[in-house]
Amino acid sequence: MSRYQHSLKEDVIAIASGAFLVAQGVFFLQQAGLLTGGTTGLALLISQFTDLSFGTLYFLCNCPFYLMAWFRMSPRFALRSVLAGGAVSVMADHIAYFFEITWLAPAYCAVIGGLLMGVGMLMIFRHNASLGGFNVLVLYCQDKFGISAGKLQMGIDCTILALSFFLIDLNLLMWSVVGAIVLNLVLAMNHKPGRYQAHPANPGA
Asked: Is the pTM here over 0.90, yes or no?
């Protein structure tokens, strides 16, 4: 694999594109009343009981993890994560202004939502950023301890969904679990230490 460093332009385009895919995935989950894991799932759940928008709740839930990223990883990574998470918050709250869906099967929303979020997060991860939340924790554990980010994220997500058992319809909870599994399979199979990562160019090459 050739050693290659992403340019700023590539980073901006990739992070913006990834944020859009994640926001689109969240939109599909919202249309069917589904949840997911992590701070995204917490924000979706809380938004059903408050007047605050998903985007506002999502950003607030992520703030402690942005601080963790600043002190545990790097200020650059933290700032990129704030921008990525903020972009998802804004986009998710405004996608509904551009098109309207009258009905979608929960099964379809679970699969397409999980796929879009997984691919979007993967793009963001590969450009040295995250969406905050448990993304920061799992990436830190992967870098420091070699634990698969996808597998650890799946465990956290399934735990959060299990805690939602008494709060949403059992059928919707089942499809929410399916969506979370799809999302994390994308990460587990594609985001591995040392794979597809850009490295500083070798001046002597």
From this structure: no
